[in-house]
What does this fold into?
Amino acid sequence: MQSTLSQYVKKRNGVPLGAKGSMRNMLLRSFGAPSFPVFWHYWNPIWGYYLSRNIMRPLSALVPMRLAVFTTFLVSGALHDLAVALVHWKPVLFFTPWFGCMGALVIVSNKYALSYGFLAWPVRALLNILFILLSLALTYLAMQLVL
It folds into this structure.
């Protein structure tokens, strides 16, 4: 049985949808996550709910889970690119490769069971930020090589 958005958000944030402290909990839980894949379980639970329900779960019935996860990150990036393109009225292709890179890091982290839950919260937060910055740097590098 699939959970509702309210149930999903409460499970991720520990407080009901729209409750006081929701943003604080999301930030503390995501940045303090014991691994990069777990970071994404807590990050932006509303967006994650719809991506999981409408992209990842249906895809995972057709393709291996790793491909479903990677494709979900690509779709999320493409939707971010589309939003920015609509605001600026010009094509944008930045978030799709960046999110693809983060998706690849999630898959690799899962495959090798990379976990740092034994470390203090500030160190876990730093490592999660470093994963994001690493994927951003790799995206910039790749785009420079392509262009």
User: Anything to note?
Assistant: The longest helix spans residues 121-146. The chain is about 75% helix and 0% strand. The radius of gyration is 16 Å.
